[in-house]
């Protein structure tokens, strides 16, 4: 029975994917005498936690009930009061937790508080699923840097463009729509200035999406992004341009007038680990790196890759000069290659989507 209700709580949590950052996804279910009397999910940072919604729905029936929650209830005052205190106040009898919260402000303290108040607490029901649900949050909390997904669309021979730089379109429309679903689940989309110059992309979530747009981040050491680029002029989403230390205020001003923000690095080049620390400080919990080959190469060589999403089209491009998905130096020895595990394979339209994780 515990697993059944926890599965429901996990499903509730999942419904808010892409909208809770920098907070985790959390679902809660209140059960009394074999009946579900309340449920809820955390929907947005700053808004009530899942337990609050579920207990509110349960009303007086919360007394003596069992509460299933996908993540350890918080024990500290953040933007909302501690959920552990609310569970105690509502006199629930038992709390079942899927996984503990690695956030140093919580980290077992929520569970301890409940137990000290005499509440029976069970921990670890569907833990694996709950850990996967919040892997981006857990990575961010423990490293203070965003979770990195590399994404590319490639031909069957591993090319992301032709030798002349054309990449529209390698994959089918269905696969390209799927990219929008994946973008939505990340806080920011990262590309190199090479991709801006070659494709002038919009880098927004489209196809009926009306919610928050991910931030568009361009790695552009010398500020080569044209002032007429879509990401500068369209006002569809925030745009951050990352530049080297040598770029001057005067150079940046015309972009700032259109709403673009700058991250000026301390060095003349953009060092990926420093960039990730900088994005982490700005509450960016996850990034979707959409190329091109040079930028992918830099993420790989700095070992900053948690997940790869590859769309593979049954097309052959060929040629030594056509870029492959990941450029840069590459590894010289097989033993140094980054080994991932395939987590998901799916046919989308005429293409194959592969999700692999470290
Ligand atoms: N099929 C796909 O999924 C896909 C996706 C994206 C792009 N593409 C294709 O790929 C091509 C563009 O790729 P690209 O490799 O030439 O360009 P890119 O990776 O988009 O951009 C590379 C440029 O970014 C700048 N940069 C700044 N910091 C960097 C860092 N730490 N590491 C790497 N680059 C950094 C560098 O220019 P500065 O030195 O001036 O800063 C560098 O030349 C286009 O043909 C495009 O159509 C295909």
UniProtKB/TrEMBL annotation:
UniProt keyword annotation of Oxidoreductase present: yes
A GO molecular function held by the record: NADP binding
Binding positions for Zn(2+) per the UniProt entry: 49, 74, 83
PROSITE patterns membership: CYT_DCMP_DEAMINASES_1, CYT_DCMP_DEAMINASES_2
Active site: 51
Sequence positions that bind NADP(+): 153, 169, 195, 199, 221, 292-298
InterPro entries for this protein: APOBEC/CMP_deaminase_Zn-bd (IPR016192), CMP_dCMP_dom (IPR002125), Cytidine_deaminase-like (IPR016193), DHFR-like_dom_sf (IPR024072), Eubact_RibD (IPR004794), RibD_C (IPR011549), RibDG_C (IPR002734), Riboflavin_Biosynth_HTPR (IPR050765)
Presence of the UniProt keyword Oxidoreductase in the record: yes
Enzymatic reactions: 2,5-diamino-6-hydroxy-4-(5-phosphoribosylamino)-pyrimidine + H2O + H(+) = 5-amino-6-(5-phospho-D-ribosylamino)uracil + NH4(+); 5-amino-6-(5-phospho-D-ribitylamino)uracil + NADP(+) = 5-amino-6-(5-phospho-D-ribosylamino)uracil + NADPH + H(+)
UniProt cross-references to CDD domains, sorted A to Z: Riboflavin_deaminase-reductase
CC cofactor note: Binds 1 zinc ion.
Name of the protein in its database record: Riboflavin biosynthesis protein RibD
Pathway: Cofactor biosynthesis; riboflavin biosynthesis; 5-amino-6-(D-ribitylamino)uracil from GTP: step 2/4; Cofactor biosynthesis; riboflavin biosynthesis; 5-amino-6-(D-ribitylamino)uracil from GTP: step 3/4
Role this protein plays: Converts 2,5-diamino-6-(ribosylamino)-4(3h)-pyrimidinone 5'-phosphate into 5-amino-6-(ribosylamino)-2,4(1h,3h)-pyrimidinedione 5'-phosphate.
Domain CMP/dCMP-type deaminase residues, every copy: 1-122
Residues annotated for substrate binding in this entry: 167, 183, 203, 206, 290
Enzyme Commission designation: 3.5.4.26, 1.1.1.193
Keyword terms of this UniProt record: Hydrolase, Metal-binding, Multifunctional enzyme, NADP, Oxidoreductase, Riboflavin biosynthesis, Zinc
A Pfam match: RibD_C
Provenance organism: Anoxybacillus pushchinoensis
